Amino acid sequence: MYSNSATKLETLFSHVEDAYRERARQHTKQYILAFVKNFEYLFQYTNLKYKYGDSKIFGPEIKSIQENLVKIKSLAEELDNKFMLFVMGSGKNGKSTLINALAGKQVAKESISPETWKIDVFTNYEKSESIKLKFKDGSEKIYSKEEALEYLQNEDLKVRESKKIIRAKRDEARDSGLSIEALEEKLQELQKYYLYRSDVIEMVTPIKNSKLLESYNLVDTPGLNQEIDGMVISNAKEYYSKADGIIWVLPGDRIAGAGDKKEIERVLKEYGNPQNIIAVINRLDNIIANGQTVDGVIADAKRFYGDIFNEFIPISARQARHAQEVLKNKPLSDEAYKNAISEYEASRFDYLLNHLNRTLFSDALALQINAKIKNTGLVYSDIESKIHDIYETLSEVNDKRLTLQKELEEDTMNRFMRWVDKFTEFAKKEVSRVRMTSDLYNDELWRMEPRKFNSFVKEHIVKPDEVLVGIQRIVNELCLDFSEFLNYKNSISLFVEFKHLYPVESNINFAVEYNEWDDFSNIASNYTGGGIVDTFIRGVDRMFNEEKSKRITDQFYQQLEKIIKNIISELGDKIDGYITSIECNMENSFSEMYGSSVYVEEFKAILIELMNCKLGEMRDLSVRDLIYNS
Predict the structure, then answer these.
(1) Which of 183, 245, 366, 567 is within CB 3.0–4.6 Å of 360 for a Cys-Cys bond?
(2) Over 90: is that where the pLDDT of 186 sits?
(3) Which fold has domain 83-362?
(4) What would the mean pLDDT of 151-180 be, rounded to a whole number?
(5) What is the rounded average pLDDT for all residues in the chain?
(6) Core vs surface per residue 456-480: b (16+ CB within 10 A) or e
(7) Cα separation of 119 and 242, whole Å?
(8) Span 288-307, mean pLDDT?
(9) What is the rounded distance in angstroms from the CA atom of residue 527 to the CA atom of residue 390?
(10) Residue 6: exposed, middle, or buried by beta-carbon count in 10 A (0-12, 13-18, 19+)?
(11) Whole-model pTM?
(12) Which residue ranges does the record assign to the Dynamin N-terminal domain (predicted)?
């Protein structure tokens, strides 16, 4: 009876524990998804309404935010799945061999230079050998093994071809004599626009008869760091946020390799030293063969990595894997069996399995929930940072746009008025010259015959050819000045992504056109000439009218004023046209880089809402929640 009661009690506690585990997972999942739903509503509204996703600068950032939202939703959905045990490290550290040893069979491709940018998830076989590919937009597709491999091979081919293009364009840029700043921008351009990035983020492969995979998913990742001539194109932190637990593989025969530590520090600088990470020193067989001891290599690892990892597990994944394969073959001779067992024991692989059971696997639920919450926060911090950067950049460039627009209007008006003043000064000098000259000939002009009057005035007083040369000189200087000015204003008003790589060239040729020049032929007066009658009339006329020189000057001024007004009017129309063109260029370039300026303030307001959309602290699941919500 006692035994029966104990069994029932054990069963009851087992059911309660299972219910709590499930409820805890769902509680965490709903907490994450509720945040995403609220944030995604605002974000999608912004992106769809204002089309900022098409801009060169904000487009990639917005796409990255969208992908991060998918990542967060994926983290929540993965709470319905098994514990994700990641194996990370350099591709040359025996990572794939270790994965195969953990799975107990050949599952991971053993290669020293992995090309893929995805993660391989090996899961327990569930009556289907189909392979699932997951994409950045959250979609999934089912393929046969052959179809999936063909698809991924094509993706890898696209990556390799893009690398070839990048190298060729990089070499061409280096040989072209670009400045250091322009060359740096060229590398940025190549990485952003020429590097092919596959939309595949996971390949999920079902594996038969693997004991570890009955309870856990095993995850292979690309090498720590993939670069093209100094451009980091992939690194571990892209995959890290999905992990519930991590085995980090270190090379025992080169434990002091700076490259591995640099990448680990780069990842942990952002994510902090987690409790769900185990350091494995691989290639124990090479260590022993080189005369080192297990204790010696652990001591070396502690000196080099002691500030990162608390414990180190030396193993030989190669020996463990070889022994597993030998032991599968039956029947075995006693000697072959003993050798395989001896090799397996020498690999110290059981030390790793026991350590996993005592650490990661013994508290898998808590680690999984904590990892999802922490990683959600880490991914969201990246979103938050991008939202803040977009807001700051948008505010800065819009302020620049408004300042440029204001300065364009003010500087153009000031320059326009300076040239109006030059024409005014010219007119004053010419009018003064005509008055002074005509005063000298005033008496003579009253006695002059009509047929000589006009020609004398033109040749000796007005001198229209010289006046027109003076006007043309000012016009030529004006056109050159405005060409330089408008070219400068147009160049600084254009928003470009790579200003050193592609400096703006502006070819405005400012010219003022004239329909015709006035020849001052109408400067004349009645009652001129000789004879008694004319002399009498001229005398009367001088009693009641102004001096002849004044009348000539007034008529000259009127005609000169007409010419200058026509020029200034033509100048104003020309300037208005160019200013409109420059403002249009400014808006077009701004829209291409950052999106339409029309919605800037509304977009900024929504960005502020997004920045205020915080990921709050999750409330712990209480017993009351378990009882009333199960």
Answers:
(1) 245
(2) yes
(3) Rossmann fold (3.40.50)
(4) 91
(5) 84
(6) ebbeebbbbeebeeebeebbeebbe
(7) 10
(8) 87
(9) 80
(10) exposed
(11) 0.82
(12) 86-283
